[in-house]
Amino acid sequence: MQRAGARHAKHLRLALVLIATFLVVQAVASFVTGSLALLSDAAHMLVDAVGLGLSLAAIGLANRDGAHSRSRTFGLYRLEVLAALANAVLLLGVSAYVLVEAVLRIVNEPSVDAGPMIVVAVIGLAVNVVAFLLLRPAASESLNVQGAYIEVLADLVGSVGVIGAGIIVVTTGWTGADAIVAAVIGLWIVPRTLRLASRSLRVLLQVAPAGLDVDGLRASLSAVVGVIDVHDLHVWTLTSEMDVASAHLMIGVDADAHGVLDRARELLRDSYGIAHATLQVEPDDHTGCEEVNW
């Protein structure tokens, strides 16, 4: 099965080229103009570039020939989740830096050259809009791509904020607006980043997929014709769009094991979207399974 990220790798690469190219322009302009808001936007773009690079590397490794081996029985699909978590950590670090620097600048109010700042921010807005549109189709399918998508969305909002700060500085001469906008950009991204980190950690900790009722799933399997009991049920996410389940289904001695297995697999696939399941069908006179139930 081709992963969502792999299907959109071309768009990811194009977005990376756009962002990395403009990052250099924006970083130079931030030092020339003395704008913290522009510098914070450039820092976010740096994180975007790193995040997109991690995303592409993870997708490439996870889908290349040889990703599965005798020791890597699940392949390298989890690299996508690790890349998403790394993106979240980078974003939190950048946000913390911007917030600290904004407080210092609000106190000192350094000079800001607002004219070039606005021009660069407008170009940055256009670049971010293009990157946003490139990543949007895959963002709902891949946790990894969603991390890059959130970063670009933050940059897009940041560019709007920089433009607004530049206009305030030009019209009022109040350079504190630059630092305040930078702080607002930093604060705006934090809750979204925390949600991304939380989703990544849920996958890495093998928590049941969000929104899936494990008790309801157990009841549904118990209601399958021929099933007497369900135990040792586990449900987790391997990576985006890949939920996995395993369970022991106890049946009567005279029950049709093949029929039970087929019905259980259809239930998991059609009602819960779980196409990969390992189900052990065992007669009710079998003993010993309770010793390995965890």
Layout of secondary structure:
Elements lengths: L3 H4 L1 H25 L2 H28 L14 H31 L5 H26 L3 H30 L3 H29 L9 H9 L4 E13 L2 E10 L5 H16 L3 E8 L11
Parallel strand pairs: 2-3
Antiparallel strand pairs: 1-2
Helix pairs in contact: 2-3, 2-5, 3-4, 3-6, 3-7, 4-6, 4-7, 5-6, 6-7
List keywords for this structure.
mainly alpha, 3-stranded mixed beta sheet, 9 helices, 67% helix, 3 strands, 294 residues
Specify the helix fraction band.
55-70%
Count of DSSP strands: 3
Low-confidence stretches: none
Broad structural category: mainly alpha
Proportion of strand residues: 5-15%
- Average pLDDT works out at 81
Give a nutshell description of this structure.
This protein has 294 residues and is mainly α. It is 67% helix and 11% strand.
Task: Report what the structure shows.
By secondary structure, the chain is mostly helical. The longest helix has 31 residues, at 78-108. It has nine helices and three strands; from the N terminus they run H-H-H-H-H-H-H-H-E-E-H-E. It starts with a helix and ends in an 11-residue tail after the last strand.
